[in-house]
Amino acid sequence: MTTTAQQSNPSGYRVQNPATGEVVETFETATDAQVVQAVDAAQAAYESWGALPIAERAVVVKRVAELFTERADELASTITLEMGKPFSESKGEAEFCTDIFNYFATEGPTLAADQEINAIGGGRAVVQRLPVGPLLGIMPWNYPYYQVARFVAPNLMLGNTIVLKHAETCPRSAMAIAQIMDDAGVPAGAYVNLFATHDQIADIIADPRIQGVSLTGSERAGAIIGQLAGQNLKKAVLELGGSDPYVVLDSEDVKAAAKLAWDTRIENTGQACNSNKRMIVMEDIYDDFVAGLTEQANGLVPGDPATEDAGTFGPLSSRAAAEAVHEQVQDAVSKGATLHAGGTLHDGPSCYYSPAVLTGITKDMRAYREELFGPVAVVYKVSSDEEAIKLANDTQYGLGGAVFSTDEERARKLAHRLQVGMANVNGIGEDADLPFGGVKRSGYGRELGPLGMDEFVNKRLFYIAD
Ligand SMILES: NC(=O)c1ccc[n+]([C@@H]2O[C@H](COP(=O)([O-])OP(=O)(O)OC[C@H]3O[C@@H](n4cnc5c(N)ncnc54)[C@H](O)[C@@H]3O)[C@@H](O)[C@H]2O)c1
Ligand SMILES: O=CCCC(=O)O
């Protein structure tokens, strides 16, 4: 059985429907005593869970994978209500979690296998991959299931245990995940959902039994959690914001290229860390590209994310999120940028912001430096590959980036110069087996793929002399 700790104290944890602004349910934060119990439980579970053969943990993790698909409809409805994600994307997210848990359940035993070393001084040496103990996960609202899966699947396989603090706007999905763990046979304490406050998070990181912390969230939270981890000498993985460049050098079908760029940008209503937040387009196709984007954006009306009627768009996750994007766009427009479509903040308390196309961004505008976490296609015009790469790298972020061209070699050469954790050519690679993470102020560490299982692990040398 897993544990969901929640009691007393007024709380920020709540379900608020972004399509209407209605507060549907509120939850109370954990008491300090429950925080202690959560860490006690995670430590106690580690003693037995971490000692199991990995093949036995894989059986449980496989069942977790199955449950995400068996419950996909119900899971999808939960996050569509909590954060406004269109239902089909919500369901796809739940099903993607199946892929992630399956990947680690299947590949985990190989990824965690002993690695023999040819000891040059004699003797026998292996590197063992051992669990480290209880970990803290701090997760955001934008992919309420997938972000958790990326962290939890490899670590449960390794034998680590998890205390999970989800975003304040995702309490029902947080509890649904805990229920899946429980029903799959994850033992009590091996996965604990905790409605913790930020102050309590600091206490948990300081607890000597907690061996590491993984945060997916904003740069602001990353700086705080990274500092707390450093003070307490704890390993940290930080998956933070991004402003990914999406360079289009040429195209045989500019309209189709614009449609692909638009669909990529509009996924999750623009609230993806690795969304193509800066489109950088060669001058000879620029006008047609912007026209293609504008055609996509024009005429869209607010709709219910649960039904996704044609010609509609869904709300952002919260009123604050919609207002923040609106302010960034307004700042740009007031300084001379051109808004080709959208950009309307709908009346409160709903959280609709009409998908926008924005050009003419200059360095004095907030949109040049800041992450735009919403449905805004920002397009820059360039006249050479050199200018494109310079602009692409002129950012504090370094999450992902992509270069598109009919000449793969030309695109490959330019993508090779991207200062990012994920460089792509003619498409964006993303799957359970492909490592995910960034450099610069997008954070450090990796999730997914083989590297995702190599973060919170004791790579112990085991040496036997001749
Ligand atoms: N790199 C990635 O893989 C990735 C993935 C998804 C989202 N993100 C980024 O996340 C951001 C959007 O998510 P958000 O608005 O939920 O981020 P956020 O930083 O506000 O919150 C993320 C989580 O951190 C917690 N948190 C925030 N401040 C804290 C503090 N001082 N102490 C303890 N916990 C704290 C929140 O309660 C939440 O659970 C965007 O910047 C996006 O790019 C990055
Ligand atoms: O928000 C960050 C992750 C988004 C994704 O992996 O598609």
TrEMBL record:
The keyword Oxidoreductase belongs to this UniProt entry's keyword annotation: yes
Domain Aldehyde dehydrogenase, residue spans: 11-458
Record Pfam families: Aldedh (PF00171)
Top-level taxon of the source organism: Bacteria
Broad EC category: oxidoreductase
Bilayer-crossing regions: none
Keyword Oxidoreductase belongs to the record: yes
Entry-linked InterPro entries: Ald_DH/histidinol_DH, Ald_DH_C, Ald_DH_N, Aldehyde_DH_dom, ALDH_GabD1-like, GABD/Sad-like
SUPFAM superfamilies per the UniProt record, alphabetical: ALDH-like
Keywords attached to this entry: NADP, Oxidoreductase
This enzyme's EC code(s): 1.2.1.16, 1.2.1.24
MF GO annotations: aldehyde dehydrogenase [NAD(P)+] activity; succinate-semialdehyde dehydrogenase (NAD+) activity
Family label: Belongs to the aldehyde dehydrogenase family.
Name of the featured protein: Succinate-semialdehyde dehydrogenase [NAD] Succinate-semialdehyde dehydrogenase [NAD(P)+]
Organism for this UniProt entry: Arthrobacter rhombi
